[in-house]
Specification:
Distance between the termini: 88 Å
Strand content: under 5%
Structural class: mainly alpha
Helix content: over 70%
Number of strands: 0
């Protein structure tokens, strides 16, 4: 009886530790999750209403698989060559900075072309692209979350599994709610609540635009934060502003390099 009580006490203590580490990790990765939310809400928004939830479900299942791959990869690297995690984190920071700057350039200079490209994609291509983007963000979420976990392999595995599951449920649960707001508005209009329904329908485009801005800002902030922490850059100005500047500058450099590579590879006109 005493052994059983001791075992139950150990189990309770383990779950208590997992809950504490999950709370800290979720706070650390909240900016990345807001970015993931904004990106995926944008992917699903605008498709046929009867295909919105099936798309969210498909991306959610892909996200769960991404979390499994990332957790296994992080645990293996922690046991074999931990410094590689910092390299992966840095590359991810550059990618997020690049994506943030690339989105700004598209909005400012190639807005119509970007919309045409998006409309031309099939549902399968949109889901595949969303899952691929989720994989990059999942790597960042799990690697950052790992820094908030302590203890043995079991403790870390449990904590990362809970964090990964919660991240996917929260992000795609909110995406499912967001893309159905306009349907709720139309339903209210049909039921005679025209004022409330019209307000929801008219508010939806502004909310999606706001989410896009938040997502882009989150990319630059998180990417810049990873870069400044990688090189241990001292804080000279408010940290949020410094991270934003660092992410923007890093993104501009990467975008510039990609454009240079494109020009070099272009065949010269004879």
């Amino acid at each position: 009886m005493f052994n059983l009580l001791a075992l139950l006490d150990d189990i309770a203590a383990t779950f208590d530790d997992v809950a504490i580490m999950t709370k800290v990790a979720m706070k650390k990765t909240s900016a990345l999750m807001s970015d993931d939310l904004a990106v995926n809400a944008g992917v699903v928004h605008g498709v046929s209403p009867n295909r919105e939830l099936p798309m969210v479900k498909a991306i959610f299942l892909g996200s769960l698989l991404n979390k499994v791959y990332c957790i296994l990869g992080v645990l293996i690297l922690m046991a074999t060559w931990p410094p590689l995690l910092k390299i992966i984190l840095f590359i991810g920071g550059l990618y997020l900075s690049f994506e943030g700057v690339h989105k700004i350039i598209e909005k400012l200079f190639h807005h119509s072309h970007a919309n045409e490209k998006k409309d031309a994609l099939t549902e399968k291509q949109k889901v595949k692209g969303a899952v691929r983007t989720d994989l990059i963000l999942s790597i960042e979420i799990i690697v950052i979350a790992e820094t908030a976990t302590k203890g043995d392999l079991l403790m870390k595995s449990l904590s990362l599994a809970v964090i990964g599951l919660l991240a996917s449920i929260i992000i795609y649960g909110l995406v499912a709610l967001l893309v159905k707001i306009d349907d709720l508005g139309l339903h209210l209009i049909d039921k005679g609540h025209e004022k409330a329904g019209s307000l929801l329908v008219s508010f939806m485009p502004y909310m999606m635009k706001g989410l896009g801005i938040i997502g882009t800002g989150a990319m630059l902030l998180v990417g810049g934060g990873i870069i400044t922490h990688t090189f241990h850059i001292p804080t000279w100005i408010p940290e949020i502003l410094q991270n934003l500047i660092a992410g923007t500058l890093a993104g501009m450099v990467v975008v510039g390099l990609f454009e240079l590579i494109k020009k070099v590879r272009q065949p010269k006109a004879s």
